[in-house]
């Protein structure tokens, strides 16, 4: 598996020693208290797990292995996966080696296409993507090695093997789902001369260099978001039972398919298109301000504004705005997104009910996809999935290497709360 495996293996003794030291010295210390409201409310804000790949700070946004996400927008996804897993950006030689690994593995088994082609024509793209991943479970090296017998210290190696294979084929699978589901013609073969993100854009059916840039950026910005979001936590929980990467990642992406997790960008874009239809084009700032008040006074929310954690503009949104200002300023949809950013936060501040009046990543990402002709809204979550798989896999490998035990929080009944909490 090349240089990535070697770099990860070199890091492991330090990480294992660090974990042991922390547990020995601080294992009995409390890091969180849980209120009854949190127990009933989805455990929001409860500190109850360890994730070293990324962190979301309220005043700064997403940080990948110590790097603010805006410092990584010039990197390509292969570099991001290397960083997530090892804590270091790859050298040119290490990047080339990882890309070579992807190239050797980037061939989707024929039986996967047969299964996808047999699915109902109106199947949801996410159901098709997850079906493909589950069907490919027969390729799992972890399951094979586990059945043969191996030591716990070796568990991470076949998980890395499975993760590399999954990441290598996923662009072809995702692009194949798009072309099959939306009658775009025959599948487009993988191009060994292109990087991971560009290859995905190419296999979708575009050879626009600017779309390549947009796809690299999109895949980088959505790569990871701590360990407690639905997709990451679902993948972690399933993986903690020693399920292989195919089962675990599929579980995570099934969570991503939920409307409260992965559908926000299409809802934001739908609102922008509604604005354009209402005003027969790009509205003035005054018209937008009035429409924002009309939306809020009608008891509705403005999609894309507000975030459960952030208390600042999402830096991922800022990255999309900068990209759009460079490549999409002739596009009415992006013009509205850009103008909403100038108007809506001030309206929300005056309204006073939003804890965070700033945009999150979903307020901008859909407009970029729409600009480049990707207008099939139900497919947007597949793009999100392709990116987020980098974070899911890196967390899975690290937890398997560190011997993180099975996830098993204690639950209590409503009656127990009533009887024991005074």
Brief write-up:
The chain has 422 residues and is an all-alpha fold. 60% of the residues lie in helices and 2% in strands.
Biggest sheet, strands in spatial order? Answer: 1-2-3
The largest β sheet comes out as: 3 strands, antiparallel
Structural class from helices and strands?
mainly alpha
CATH architecture assignment name of the largest domain: Orthogonal Bundle
Total count of strands: 3
Query: Which sequence of SSEs, written as H and E, runs from N to C?
Result: HHEEEHHHHHHHHHHHHHHHHH
**Which regions contain 5 or more consecutive residues with pLDDT less than 50?**
none
Fold and architecture overview:
This protein is mainly α. It folds into two domains: 234 residues, Citrate Synthase, domain 1 (Orthogonal Bundle), CATH 1.10.580.10; 108 residues, Orthogonal Bundle (Cytochrome p450-Terp, domain 2), CATH 1.10.230.10. Helix content is 60%, strand content 2%. The protein is built from 19 helices and three strands. It has a three-stranded antiparallel sheet with strand order 1-2-3, with no helix packed on it. The protein is globular, with a radius of gyration of 22 Å. It starts with a helix and ends with a helix.
């Amino acid at each position: 598996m090349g240089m990535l495996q070697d770099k990860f293996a070199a890091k492991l003794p330090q990480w294992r020693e660090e974990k042991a030291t922390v547990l020995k010295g601080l294992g009995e210390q409390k890091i969180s208290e849980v209120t009854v409201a949190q127990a009933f409310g989805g455990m929001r804000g409860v500190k109850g797990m360890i994730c070293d790949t990324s962190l979301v700070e309220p005043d700064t946004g997403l940080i990948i292995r110590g790097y603010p996400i805006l410092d990584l927008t010039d990197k390509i996804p292969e570099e991001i996966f290397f960083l997530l897993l090892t804590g270091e950006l790859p050298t040119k030689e290490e990047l080339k080696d990882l890309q070579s690994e992807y190239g050797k593995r980037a061939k989707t088994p024929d039986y996967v296409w047969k299964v996808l082609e047999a699915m109902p024509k109106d199947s949801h793209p996410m159901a098709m993507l997850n079906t493909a991943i589950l069907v490919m479970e027969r390729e799992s090296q972890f399951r094979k090695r586990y059945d043969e017998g191996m030591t716990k210290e070796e568990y991470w190696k076949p998980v890395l093997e499975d993760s590399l294979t999954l990441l290598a084929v996923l662009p072809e699978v995702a692009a194949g789902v798009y072309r099959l589901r939306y009658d775009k013609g025959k599948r487009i073969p993988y191009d060994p001369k292109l990087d991971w993100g560009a290859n995905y854009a190419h296999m979708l059916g575009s050879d626009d260099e600017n779309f390549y840039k947009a796809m690299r950026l999109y895949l980088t910005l959505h790569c990871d978001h701590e360990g407690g979001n639905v997709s990451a936590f679902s993948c972690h929980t399933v993986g903690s039972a020693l399920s292989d990467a195919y089962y675990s990642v599929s579980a995570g992406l099934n969570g991503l398919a939920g409307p409260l997790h992965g559908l926000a960008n299409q809802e934001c874009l739908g609102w922008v298109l509604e604005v354009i239809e209402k005003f027969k084009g790009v509205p003035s700032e005054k018209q937008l301000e009035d429409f924002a008040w009309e939306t809020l006074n009608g008891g509705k929310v403005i999609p894309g504004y507000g975030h459960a954690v952030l208390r600042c503009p999402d830096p991922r949104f800022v990255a999309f705005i900068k990209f759009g200002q460079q490549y999409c300023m002739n596009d009415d949809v992006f013009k509205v997104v850009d103008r909403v950013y100038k108007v809506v936060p001030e309206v929300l501040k005056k309204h006073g009910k939003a804890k965070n009046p700033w945009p999150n990543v979903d307020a901008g990402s859909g407009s970029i996809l729409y600009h480049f002709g990707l207008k099939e809204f139900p497919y947007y979550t597949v793009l999100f999935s392709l990116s987020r798989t980098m974070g899911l896999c890196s967390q899975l490998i690290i937890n398997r290497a560190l011997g993180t035990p099975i996830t098993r929080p204690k639950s209590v009944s409503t009656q127990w709360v009533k009887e024991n909490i005074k």
